[in-house]
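Summary for the funding panel

The consortium committed to producing paired sequence-structure records for every protein in the target list. Below we show the first two records in order, beginning with the earlier of the two.
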Amino acid sequence: MSKAPKQSKTALEAVRAQITGCERCPRLRQHCLEVARVKKKEFRDWTYWGKPVPGFGDAKARVWIVGLAPAAHGANRTGRMFTGDKSGEWLYRALHENGFANQPQSVSSQDGMILKDVYISAAARCAPPDNKPTPEELANCESYLHEEARLLENVQIILALGKIAWDTVYRAFAKTQHGGGKKADFQHGGKTAIGNWKVQMSYHPSRQNTNTGRLTREMWDGIFKGVQKDLQN
C-alpha cells in the first residue's frame, strides 16, 4: 500500500516554497531575472516566472525524474518543470502515453496537468546561462534533492535525464544510500542502483539531442517501457 500522509504533501509544498525563494546563486538569479525582463519575441506578452523552479508531481510517486535545469524560456517562463518548451513536449507526451499524466501537453502551470506516480525535479533549480550550471551552483541546490528524497517515501525508480543529472544524483546520495561500490558510467539506457532505488539513465530530451537524432523517439519510448517494467518487477 502506498504511503501518502498529508504531512508529506504539506512538507513538499514547504520545500517548493523554499526553492522559489532561494537566492543562493547570484549569477543564476541575475540571469533568470534578465531573461524574464528581455523575454523572447514569441513570448513577449507573457509575464515570466523568473524565479527558481520547484519540483512538480505526485507526493506518492514511485518514479522520480531528475533533469538538468529549467529552460530559460520554458520553466523559467512558466514556473513549472519541463513546461513550455520542446523538451517538455517529449517528456509529457511519454508520461501521458504511459499513464503517468492526464494530458500529453504542458504549456503553462495553469493548464490542468496532473501527474500520477511521478515527481519531477532538476539538478539545478534556476535556468543557467548556456545550460551550464557550475559545480558550486549544483552543490547549492543539492539540499533540495535531499529534502525531496526524504519526503518522497514511495520512490522506487530514479530516471536521470542526462549526465549532469546522473552525476548530481550520485553525488547527492552515494554516501547516504549507495552502501559502497563503483559509480556506473553514464550511458543512454544504463541501469544501476543507489541503495533501494533503481536508477535508469537517459539522454536529456533537449533540442540538441532530439534535433540531431542522438535521441530518437524509439530510444526515448524505450526508456519508459523500461520504467514500466521495473515498476512491475
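The next record, for a separate protein in the list, is shown here:
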Amino acid sequence: MHDMIVPGKKTDFEEILDIINEAALAYKGIIPEDRWHEPYMSGQELQNQMDDGVQFWCYHDHDRIIGVMGIQDKADVTLIRHAYVRTIARNKGIGGKLLNHLSELTTKSILIGTWADATWAINFYKKHGYNLVSHDDKERLLRKYWNIPIRQIETSVVLANSNWRDSN
C-alpha cells in the first residue's frame, strides 16, 4: 500500500492518538500555558471525539499512518477537526491532500477551529482557500458547533471556506 487516504479503523486508534500527541508538541510553549497538557489528548478524549461523530481519515505512506484529519457533520456545517501530520513528514503536502480529500466529502460549508497563536496552522488553511471569520462570528460559531471550554474559545480562531462566506 503506497500513499493513500482511507477512513480510520478501530485498529488505528493507538496510532491516531500517537500522531495527534506527537504532532501537537508543536503547540508547546506557543498556545497559552493553561491550555497545554501532556499528553495533549488522552485516549478517553479521543474516544469521546469519535463517539461524538468525528470520523478520522488516515494518510498512509506504505504501511504507516503519517497524517490524520477528522471530519464532523454538525447540522448545517461540516467541521474539520484534529488535523495532524507526524513531525518528520511535515511540509510535504500531506495535510493539503487530507484537507482536499475531506473537503470533497461534503457540500456544506466547512469550518475549522485552531489556536489563535498557531500561526503555521492558520497560514496552512489560508493557503488552501480558508479565511478567518470575524471575532463575533468566531465566538458564535465555537459556542454553537464545538464543545470546548470558554478559555479555549477565547484563545482560538475559526476559518471558513468560501461557501460559508457566501451563505452567512
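Regarding this second record: Helices lie at 13-23, 43-51, 94-103, 119-127, 135-145, 150-154, 162-167. The chain is about 35% helix and 25% strand.
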